[in-house]
Design brief:
The chain is mainly beta and about 60 residues long. It is about 10% helix and about 25% strand. The structure holds zinc ion.
Length: about 60
């Protein structure tokens, strides 16, 4: 079973408490504000700042649209 995107409505970034975007290809939850990506393990998002991946790259600009 795929990650349930309905969860997106209740999930928030642990750093800024803002909304997260779901990156289907990378299977990560993205906070554009903090430029962090949170991975999803076995359909469970790992919303820990210490586990987040820094996405300060050009890729983020493309995902906004
Ligand atoms: Zn954030």
């Amino acid at each position: 079973m795929a990650f349930d995107t309905k969860l997106m409505e209740i999930l928030a970034c642990p750093v800024c408490k803002g909304k997260l975007d779901y990156d289907k290809e990378a299977k990560e939850l993205i906070c554009h504000f903090d430029k962090l990506a949170f991975r999803i393990e076995k359909d469970i998002p790992v919303l820990l700042e210490s586990e987040a991946r820094d996405i300060n790259a050009s890729k983020t600009a493309e995902q906004v649209s």
